[in-house]
Predict the 3D structure of the following.
Amino acid sequence: MRKRLFVRFLVALSALALAGCGSATTTSQSASTLGLPASAIPSSHPDLKGMTVTIADQGSPSVDRFTEFHIVKLLRSWGANASILWTPSQQIAASAIIKGTAQVYTSTIADALPSVDNGLNIVAFGINNPKVDYVLLAAPGVTSIQDLKGKSIGVLTGGPDDITYDLVEQALQSAGLTIHDINLVTVGGQTLRVDALVAGRISATVVSHTYLLKLRSSGYHSLFDFTQRDPNLYNDIFWARPDWLAAHPKLAVAFNMAALETYRTFDNPKTEPQLVAEADSQVPGAVASQTQALFKIFSTYDMYPPNAVLQSSALQQQEQLYYRYHTLDTLTPLSKWATTKYDAAALQVLGTAKS
């Protein structure tokens, strides 16, 4: 039986100053120092004419994916043929990288590393969401975590690499319950979990704030806000095959420049409304007031620091924490699953922003 001591996990997380999620500083480094060709590091905005990149992401368009929408917009403005491939599962998204129908894959460390250990040849090279965006959403009538005893909670897969399982266990432990006090139901992705919740097949599940805002008027509510409780935990990271990164260093640096510019657009009250409008335009049926409310939550939790880049120490510390509390079954040398040089080059070009 896997035991996860998430109370200690939270204490340990809080003690870590993960530089990738806050203000980062960098000294000027040459392309050779970073291990990149000089042509990969532009003096300003890159020229990407003739280049193609597709992001594979599990799920469907939703306003909380605004970072990807804006990154694609920026890459296109710099001349690239950029797009997003939405897939029904993480497995299909990962297979798109293997097949070459996509070049970039977005996933959490907990979800992607087991696949790396099983032979998927990808490495982390940038950040999509510097902080987690999850709540434990409950049905009307479930007023506390203690009320979940004996009830059904929906998760993604329930396996050792399922972050929703881990978060459910964390929330239960905060109320003195264990995973054995509830009925764990494997449902699938967020859309399927929300459907199961609304249909009454489960009493609670882990989803993003987007669904909380959509369903709040119908009485559904948050029992536990992981964004607030886990402020130093990376969420989605960008992954790619090492051979693709080696062949397209200029595009990899530009990808991270676009991510940083997206965070800075969000961080600026004058430009944030354009991200709201962009997100709404990409999602059929999106409600502007709900998107604005979601962005207010993101701002409150400082979810997109303007200098957020991957840092080796942060990645190693986070992997060790996942391993210590059995979210991961093994430790993998960082050189086999992550590189920070493309992020470092992007921050060097754009400079450190005041936050």
